């Protein structure tokens, strides 16, 4: 085995919010080793990843056979982007079809690269049945004594180092969207520091018609400037045309005429918006990527968790970090315009709780940048964890040679 090159195979879940961080992780590993890395996904996702990377040596992108039609999904549906809620379980279950092609690929790599099939140090079959059901870093550390490395956040460098361009960010800019980065920056430049509320529920979430109406009325009553990424409400095609009747009559014309609001349909350059000094708060579903992007820029959060682990994220942000106020939960809750106005007024206030949340968010932003900082002899906790992870890989390689 000493004559072979180590090989890492990565299989991200079929969601764009998982794939980009996996690509960033692969790049970090590649910077520190000469390992081969293969990222595996379905054909359309591999095509997407190909357009979102530089082209480092030894990182391969391999597609596995997948036909969404075979699983009862719409044609050319290979990730959760804009996928209706009713189809989420279907795409989860469809990933089981990748098991055999993935196993075949791994066996081919083992034979091609000359690895010993019995050289695995750890296999999931060795886990205690309770551990197979458990989740979380603490559980793994305490119950199995396995090493765990916290190497995040896997954010674009431009969010960590101000002014530094980043390939992933630039390629995201090229995506078809409803608001160009240039128009976004131009609009934000017209507003005072920390005054704008940014609203987005991620790439695969939306709210109900009645909630959308209440949110719009509350925004208008607050008289605070905002950028709102709107999608068709729940029950409608997320990729379909947006209808004016889903918002109060004349709402878009009024807010845009007074330069109080910017309605964006489909997609907005989120990273640029959060990086801009005029952005003062983020109304979000609390997906983890959005949380990290917001806090890395010191932007406090109004949470509206909709699915998955988002309610837990919201609870942590409120109770442990003090950087968040929760507006409501889910798509069945009833909210009034006064509820919306109240939380906006609190979070965007320059005094009281709003000021306190902003200060705590700034502190966390500093901690995030410190964690990934590497200057001279100084290494942040994330950098140290990555180095330790790589050292363990190299040590394992030497021991098995």
From TrEMBL:
Annotated Pfam families: UDPGT (PF00201)
Listed PROSITE patterns: UDPGT (PS00375)
EC numbers, comma separated: 2.4.1.-
Family matches, as PANTHER family: GLYCOSYLTRANSFERASE, UDP-GLYCOSYLTRANSFERASE 92A1-LIKE
GO molecular function, one term: UDP-glucosyltransferase activity
Family recorded in the similarity comment: Belongs to the UDP-glycosyltransferase family.
UniProt-recorded name of the protein: Glycosyltransferase
Primary enzyme class: transferase
Gene3D superfamilies according to UniProt: Glycogen Phosphorylase B
Keywords linked to the UniProt accession: Glycosyltransferase, Transferase
Gene name in the database record: LOC104239869
